[in-house]
Amino acid sequence: VRVAVLISGRGSNMVALAEAARDPSFPAEIVLVLSNDPGAEGLARAAALGIPTRAIDHRSYPDRATFDAAIDMALREAGADLICLAGFMRILTDGFVERWAGRMLNIHPSLLPLFKGTHTHAQALAAGVRLHGCTVHFVVPELDAGPIVAQAAVPVHEGDDPDSLAARVIVQERRLYPKALALVAGRRARLDGGRVVIDDPP
Ligand code: GRF
Hints:
Keywords: Purine biosynthesis, Transferase. It catalyses: N(1)-(5-phospho-beta-D-ribosyl)glycinamide + (6R)-10-formyltetrahydrofolate = N(2)-formyl-N(1)-(5-phospho-beta-D-ribosyl)glycinamide + (6S)-5,6,7,8-tetrahydrofolate + H(+). It is an enzyme of class 2 (transferase). The active site is at residue 108. Pathway: Purine metabolism; IMP biosynthesis via de novo pathway; N(2)-formyl-N(1)-(5-phospho-D-ribosyl)glycinamide from N(1)-(5-phospho-D-ribosyl)glycinamide (10-formyl THF route): step 1/1. By secondary structure, the protein is of the alpha/beta class. Helices cover 35% and strands 24% of the residues. It has helices at residues 12-21, 41-48, 64-77, 94-99, 120-127, 162-185; strands at 2-7, 29-35, 53-55, 82-85, 104-108, 131-138, 148-155, 189-192, 195-198. It has a seven-stranded mixed sheet, sandwiched between helices. A two-stranded antiparallel sheet has the order 8-9. Strand 4, helix 4 (94-99) and strand 5 form a beta-alpha-beta unit. Helix 1 (12-21) runs parallel beside helix 6 and helix 5 crosses helix 6. The longest helix has 24 residues, at 162-185. It binds 5-O-phosphono-beta-D-ribofuranosylamine (GRF). 5-O-phosphono-beta-D-ribofuranosylamine binds next to helix 1 and helix 6.
């Protein structure tokens, strides 16, 4: 399964996916890393790993639809079967999301459906939750609302601030995303209506 990873920044989740995909038994290969920001640090990290990269600068496009069309073209040129959003900070148009329905994953730094949107760690602290974490889900037009593939939880410690909590969550993200991608690429996680069904390992 040919996977394109879309990033906007550091790309630490992308690196975790790329490193997992190096294992010959991993059911997917990363064929492209694409960023909306030409300056994204993750582009250099992908290149260092020998992965083809593209920068499609959203500021060069008059509107979201033409930007998304450029992304779609790059994905098709790369022969991508599946998209992993990993720290990708652009809202994709409904048309694009529907074209990739069932073939686009995202990782969100909270236990969805809690704390959608941004500043999730500050939201968790403000809510006083004792458990926080991250979620890999299929992308649907509604933001942070798609069928959940996998989650990982972390405890919230006394004295945590958003940075200390983020640091604990990101460790789990890097572990969770490769596992979730393997389930989907290995066709062990499949969409059944609005939910994900996980088949037990053979
Ligand atoms: C991570 O917290 C991820 O959950 C969110 O963006 C942050 C940065 O990710 N989507 P990365 O280091 O760029 O992969």
